[in-house]
Amino acid sequence: MADVTDRVEEHFRLFNEAVRTRDWAAFLATFAPDAVMRFEGVPAGPYEGLDRIARAYAEQPPSDTMRCVSDARDDDHDVVRFAWDAGGGGTLQVG
Fold first, then answer.
1. CB-hemisphere CA count at 13 Å for 65?
2. Which residues pair with 5 in a beta bridge?
3. CB atoms closer than 10 angstroms to residue 58
4. Do the beta carbons of residue 89 and residue 81 sit within 8 Å?
5. Residue 61 to residues 15, 20, 58, 77, 91: CA-CA distances in angstroms?
6. What integer pLDDT is reported at residue 66 of this predicted model?
7. Potential cystine with 78: which of 29, 33, 53, 94 (Cβ 3.0-4.6 Å)?
8. End-to-end distance of the chain based on CA atoms, in angstroms?
């Protein structure tokens, strides 16, 4: 299994490429069929299941790329602090 830094770098690489190309297929292929995407402080989601997540990206795709500020492993999750390239940031958990 890849370490947290490798997983995070790949996640960001695929996400940023999808933002630039508007082709979400490779990024979404990394999600499990029963994945859940939740946001805090954002009026979106939660999205339950890969089909719903894919629909959300198709209907309201992000327009900004991001970069990793820090990453760590916490039990069964990768915890990642990130910064949007246009400003601002947040934390995401990938498990």
1. 12
2. none
3. 11
4. yes
5. 11, 11, 6, 25, 19
6. 94
7. 94
8. 13
Q: What is the pTM of this model?
A: 0.87
Give the length of the chain: 95
Q: How far apart are CA 56 and CA 83, in angstroms?
A: 21
For the record, the structure tokens of 24 come out as: 């979400």
3-state secondary structure of 54: helix
Q: What does the pLDDT look like over 36-81, one tens digit per residue?
A: 888 766 678 889 999 999 999 999 999 999 999 998 888 887 888 8
What does the mean pLDDT of the chain come to? 88
For 31, residues 6+ apart whose C-beta sits below 8 A from its C-beta are 50, 53
Across 21-95, the runs of DSSP E, i.e. the strands, are 36-37, 47-48, 66-74, 77-84, 89-94
